[in-house]
Amino acid sequence: MAAEKIFQSAGALDDIENLARLFANIAVAAGALAMETLANPNIASRLKGDTSPVTEADERIEAYLLRELEAALPGVPFLAEESVSRGATLGAGDAFLLIDPIDGTREFLARSTEFTINVALAEKNAPRVGAVYAPAQGRVWFAGAHGYEARAVPGGSLPPSQDWRPLRARPRPADGLVALISKSHLDEATKAFLSRQRIARSAPVGSSIKFCLLANGEADVYPRFGPTMEWDTAAGDAVLRSAGGVTLDPDGAPLRYGKKADDYRNGPFVAWADAAALKAAATLP
């Protein structure tokens, strides 16, 4: 389904900015389910076929997101993490939704604040709209043509627009880059990449928050060489691109979405806050 038809099917959602707000509000509302689960002394979880953990919150949040998105955007194809793990496939269309109910499930199980709820729309192989909500931090990042950060309590909604902070990635610092690395998946390829850059500081951060910190102007580069799926990156990538950043694959091209032949798996990528910095950066190994 083309994005223009998506907007028409949503009635009052007649532009990309309203769609970004919709995604943000749905994610914020779903945050209450995550926090309810965290309030339990024991969180029920199991391992999926790929050995990654899934919790009761993943499944409850995904069901909520799908219900709300179907009501607002009926018939739009979607990729949702837990549905795909049960064998669901993507329908036909050049635009589709990507949903990750909890990115950073290991952080969630450890009761860290670094997990997120993610909703995105991809069109023509690019993430066009995205929302990332960190319920335990009360921070939401959302983007269509423009990106914003706001504060919102789990189960609530976006504040008035005057309380949104526009996102803008920062220029490459003269004194070295701040690099963000995965908390759970630091590998030798990442270490080798960082050794070739001028790094002032590196910090482990969980989930898609890494993309958002690049978009916020708080960091400069996020390399990822381990496995990820399209729903892991789409919302954060949309936020970063709206702020002037870019996520590149090993060929130096923007990360693509809708890779059916690869079962919607991403290859290695590097997310950059400042595209101009790429002229001085090493290529992917």
UniProtKB/TrEMBL annotation:
It is found in: Cell inner membrane. GO terms for molecular function: 3'(2'),5'-bisphosphate nucleotidase activity; magnesium ion binding. Its EC number is 3.1.3.7. Substrate binds at E81, I102, D103, G104, T105, D232. It is a peripheral membrane protein. Mg(2+) 1 binds at E81, D100, I102, D103, D232. Its cofactor is Mg(2+). GO terms for cellular component: plasma membrane. One of its GO terms (biological process) is phosphatidylinositol phosphate biosynthetic process. Keywords: Cell inner membrane, Cell membrane, Hydrolase, Magnesium, Membrane, Metal-binding. CDD domains: CysQ. Belongs to the inositol monophosphatase superfamily. CysQ family. This is 3'(2'),5'-bisphosphate nucleotidase CysQ. It comes from Methylocystis hirsuta.
